[in-house]
Amino acid sequence: MIVNTKEILLRNGKKIIFRSPDIGEAEKLLLAFRAFSETSPYILTTPESAQKMTVEDEIKFIKSHNESSSAFVMIAEYGTEIVGISSFAAYKDSKRKHRGALGITLHPDFRGQGLGTMKMKSIIENAKKITGLLSIELSVMSPNSTAHNIYKKLGFQQVGHHPKAFLLSDGHFADDILMQLWIGPNN
Ligand SMILES: CC(C)(COP(=O)(O)OP(=O)(O)OC[C@H]1O[C@@H](n2cnc3c(N)ncnc32)[C@H](O)[C@@H]1OP(=O)(O)O)[C@@H](O)C(=O)NCCC(=O)NCCS
Questions:
Q1: Which of 168, 134, 140, 166 is nearest to 153 (CA)?
Q2: Which among 2, 9, 3 has a CA at the least distance from the CA of 115?
Q3: Ligand 1 atom nearest residue 147's Cα
Q4: Which of helix, strand or coil describes residue 96?
Q5: In angstroms, what is the span from residue 176 Cα to ligand 1's centroid?
Q6: Average per-residue pLDDT for the chain
Q7: CATH number for region 6-182
Q8: What separation in angstroms does the CA of 80 have from each of 16, 43, 70, 75, 161?
Q9: What is the 3-state secondary structure (H, E, C) of 42-88?
Q10: 21 Cβ inside 6 Å of ligand 1
Q11: For helices 145-153 and 115-127, what crossing angle results, to 10°?
Q12: Quick check: CB of 144 below 6 Å from ligand 1?
């Protein structure tokens, strides 16, 4: 699905646009994602695996999300620069299609200024428009306290904990903390 374009202001007054990318921006998106992955030890994609992604992969990624009624990609743009990438997709199988998961990563210079929180709020807002969606989910690596803090602040509850689920490139293990924001009725 295509998200509604939205303009927000960071604490420092910088104007940021949230919008869906189009396939003509695939290469730009890929280069931004590769760059962000260099400073994102707590996302699944490593800088090495990001290097292996191709523009064709990115075109498929954008196209499949833009054309889906239960998934979307949302970039954050400062001027002509992509400073944030997030995506959301509901499961496709019938027993889990009420659930969907998200991922988010920002340009390192745009972290710690409230952008992640505002982007998460916008992801939630857009996910709520998906027919039949009841649960917004994510997985966070245990050392990622910044991300964990935002998710708790926005009402996500911990629903699972998988010890030593990830082996990080520095040789340490990280636990996988599974979190859920239930947006359906409570019973
Ligand atoms: C995680 C990420 C999206 C957060 O976005 P952000 O713009 O940096 O976060 P915000 O500025 O909105 O909020 C950070 C919050 O965490 C708090 N925080 C910062 N460092 C912290 C720490 N070490 N421990 C606990 N809380 C911390 C801040 O005080 C702030 O809370 P507040 O708004 O109540 O003051 C961003 O840092 C990022 O892209 N990281 C790399 C990729 C990544 O890890 N993605 C998440 C995978 S689950």
A1: 140
A2: 9
A3: 1
A4: coil
A5: 17
A6: 97
A7: 3.40.630.30
A8: 10, 25, 28, 11, 39
A9: CCCCCHHHHHHCCHHHHHHHHHHHHHCCCEEEEEEEECCEEEEEEEE
A10: no
A11: 50
A12: yes
pTM of the entire predicted model: 0.95
Of all protein residues, whose CA lies closest to atom 16 belonging to ligand 1? 146
User: Is any atom of ligand 1 closer than 6 Å to the C-beta of 45?
Assistant: no
Residue 60 to residues 70, 73, 74, 79, 143: CA-CA distances in angstroms? 16, 12, 15, 25, 32
pLDDT of residue 176: 98
pLDDT of 126-184, one tens digit each?
Answer: 999 999 999 999 999 999 999 999 999 999 999 999 999 999 999 999 999 999 999 99
120 lines ligand 1 (CB under 6 A): no
- Which residue, by CA, sits nearest to atom 27 of ligand 1? 146
pLDDT average, residue stretch 75-93: 98
Assigned token pair, 43: 């996302």
Query: 187 pLDDT band (50/70/90 cuts)?
Result: low
Question: 137-149: per-residue pLDDT in tens?
Answer: 999 999 999 999 9
Pocket test for ligand 1, best of 45, 150, 175, 177 (most atoms within 8 A of CB): 150
- What's the confidence (pLDDT) of residue 186? 83
Mean pLDDT to the nearest integer, 73-94 = 98
